[in-house]
Amino acid sequence: MCSDVKGIIFDLDGTLLDTEKYQWKGWLVAMQELGIDLTQEDYLLYAGRGGKMIDEDLIERFGLLTGLGSILERKKELLMRWFAEEELIIYPFAEEAICHCRDNGYGIALCSGGDIEEVALKLERSGLGKYFEVVVSGSDVERNKPFPDIYMRTLSLMGMTPDNCLAVEDTQYGLQAAKDAGLRCFAVPHELSRGQDFSRADRVLDSLEGLIDYLDE
User: Fold this and answer.
1) How much of the chain, in percent, has pLDDT values that exceed 90?
2) Which residues contact 90 (CB under 8 A, 6 or more apart)?
3) CATH fold group of domain 20-85
């Protein structure tokens, strides 16, 4: 056991589950219905940020007349349907990393910027829900990632302090939230997020197997 780490906090989309592509597809479809095509560069700008912030930015940026929250609500409708119908793929070494942490006495928690109903559905359908006693979602805080509030709430529920916890994220904005809360943070970029800035990460891993190796050092 890594002596100075007592708890591990995992992000969900793009970190444990190969679902970040659905998050992006949701924004793409919702905006296409309004006659706007988003680009790959837009993904790098938005991935990992809270949905309310993205919704507000899209409305302002494109001068849309739709009400605040309407794009986000449409995205949620699409995601809830997709996640209920399609197979959710767990990343290689994700379940192994969670079990390794649990079996070696680490406190584990989930810290996802997603809506609580969406998070609950993904945890149920993937079977990962059984591992987490502490689950914090974007619905639990006023300010979502990249603000640190969601990690501060997670730490409080775990009864731990930033200096003895390690976060695992897949995006620049999740990384920012964890670091601004005072945590160490390992980044595990995927195909869509590799173009983001991970310079603040304590380590950049190719997969969650690297987390297991680190904890065994």
Assistant:
1) 90
2) 16, 17, 18, 126, 128
3) DNA polymerase; domain 1 (1.10.150)
- The phi, psi pair for 111, rounded to 5°, reads -135, 95
Q: How far is CA 156 from CA 136, 164, 216, in A?
A: 11, 13, 26
At 165 the three-state DSSP class reads: strand
Q: Are strands 134-136 and 107-111 parallel, antiparallel or unpaired?
A: parallel
Total residue length of the chain: 217
Same fold flag, 7-18+88-216 and 20-85: no
Chain-centroid distance, C-alpha 71: 20
Give the closest residue to 98 by CA, choosing from 87, 108, 86: 108
Domain 7-18+88-216 has CATH 2.60.40.10: no
The mean per-residue pLDDT over the stretch 142-150 comes to 96
Residue 46, token pair as written in the block: 């938005």
Which pLDDT tens digit goes with each residue over 69-106?
999 999 999 999 999 999 999 999 999 999 999 999 99
Q: Is 33 helix (H, G, I), strand (E, B) or coil?
A: coil
Instruction: Take residue 65 and report the two structure tokens written for it.
Output: 């007349």
Amino acid letter, 39: T
Statement: the pTM of the whole predicted model exceeds 0.85: yes
The Cα 2–Cα 164 span in angstroms is 10
